[in-house]
Design brief:
It contains 9 helices and 22 strands. With 390 residues, the chain is of the alpha+beta class. The radius of gyration is 25 Å and the shape is elongated.
Length: 390
């Protein structure tokens, strides 16, 4: 078991550019943490620094409270599983899994027992005598995991381990990894640029961009309250709608004015926060699933809406481009098909309350209650929200 702490950790390669910059993060013992971000943002570099495969330019890395900046990888007792499996092609599954233990001089009987136990846990017991070439991608991936598990490391670092698999196998392996984490209870750090993996697998998501750690929180926290438009856009499919608007005061009340002059009233308790920013531009974020065909609560606000195209994706219906604001996406079963293309019905968005957060100054969120019939006076925090950024 291991807690991992990064304090102001940075990495500069020979090209003198920051690959990772001032990352502060505490990963708790037994936690399943996901590093998510676009290509080149520094996910693998951070992982490799934790493993000891890459030196740290500045900052401090602690494992279980001990500074390990200068501790060799083999002495950190951390297993790394890479995207490329890195299995030895001339060895059988059993030999591949046993390799690390053999190198450490573990007695043969113990190796046999550990390999057998781990193979049974991963459903590899019938494949122990096969070579990697005779395995499917998912089986190879499990062998790579098995090789890490038999070592009984204190933490697992997984760098895009599922990206070589097809969609169905990925989904299966996602579930397997979640179960594995529960069974082993070990700290896991998992790198991906797949938002579905990030949202479904981890206790916590750490979103990186250009070497910086932009936001860290539980998947639903980050989804409901993204720190900025980058995070909001990164965690959304179909994409979150970002609409420019301006903070306005009308008859003593504060509104967000959309393009075309339409006003959305800011909820009572956030009025004061917004008043300070009167006249300033902000970006309003509306999640596609927060569009509804009916007004379910008194505070819900209407937007003129004309569905111009529909993508039927099973239960979900996606529709780009309402009339007044171009390129909006809605994704909701709540919008009945018969409304498609039928003039300009109103679409209702739930804005029962907007809460402000301290940083950044103009950041706020609009919380949505569920069930929708709940007393609007009760402030409950739910996912799927509207957000604004200055
Ligand atoms: N050995 C190296 N020498 C110089 N620059 C490097 C080296 N390794 C990585 N980088 C740079 O550091 C930055 C972060 O790379 P890293 O591999 O950590 O990104 P990543 O987030 O894992 O991306 P991907 O999703 O594509 O794997 C990139 O700009 C990359 O070009
Ligand atoms: Mg990488």
């Amino acid at each position: 078991m291991a807690s991992i702490e990064l304090q102001q950790v940075s990495k500069i390669y020979q090209n003198n550019q920051y690959s990772v910059r001032d990352v502060n993060l505490k990963i708790n013992d037994g936690e399943f943490v996901i590093f998510l971000g676009p290509s080149g943002c520094g996910k693998s570099t951070t992982l490799r620094m934790i493993a000891g495969l890459e030196s740290i330019t500045s900052g401090e890395l602690r494992i279980n409270g001990q500074n390990v900046n200068r501790v060799a990888p083999r002495d950190r007792n951390i297993a790394v599983v890479f995207q490329s499996y890195a299995l030895y092609p001339h060895m059988t599954v059993a030999e591949n899994m046993a390799f690390g233990l053999k190198m450490r001089g573990t007695p043969a009987a113990i190796i046999r027992q550990k390999v057998a136990e781990t193979a049974a846990m991963l459903g590899l017991d019938q494949l122990l005598h096969r070579k990697p070439a005779a395995l499917s991608g998912g089986q190879r991936q499990r062998v790579a995991l098995g090789r890490a598990i038999v070592r009984e490391p204190q933490a697992f670092l997984l760098d895009e381990p599922l990206s070589n698999l097809d969609a169905q196998l990925r989904a299966e392996m996602r579930t397997e990894l979640i179960k594995l984490h529960r069974r082993l209870g070990k700290t896991m750090v998992y790198v991906t640029h797949d938002q579905v993996e990030a949202m479904t697998m981890g206790d916590r998501i750490c979103i990186m961009r250009d070497g910086y750690l932009v936001q860290s929180g539980t998947p639903l926290e980050v989804y409901a309250n993204p720190a900025n438009t980058f995070v909001a856009q990164f965690l959304s499919s179909p994409p979150i709608n970002l609409v420019s608007c301006i903070v306005r005061s009308r008859a003593g009340e504060i509104f967000l004015e959309l393009d075309g002059g339409r006003l959305i009233r800011v909820s009572d308790y956030a009025q004061q926060h917004y008043r300070r920013h009167e006249g300033k531009p902000v970006t309003l974020g509306i999640r596609p699933e927060d569009f509804h065909a009916r007004q379910h609560g008194a505070h819900w606000q209407p937007l003129p809406f004309n569905v111009t195209a529909v993508e039927a994706l099973g239960r979900k219906i996606s529709s780009p481009a309402p009339s007044t604001m171009s390129g909006l996406w809605c994704a909701s079963t709540a919008i009945p098909c018969r409304r498609r293309g039928s003039g300009s019905p109103c679409i209702w968005i739930p804005i029962p309350c907007i809460s402000s957060t301290a940083i950044p100054a103009m950041s706020c969120r609009v919380r949505r209650r569920r069930p929708l019939s709940i007393n609007p006076g009760v402030r409950l925090c739910y996912v799927k929200s509207l957000c604004t950024w200055a």
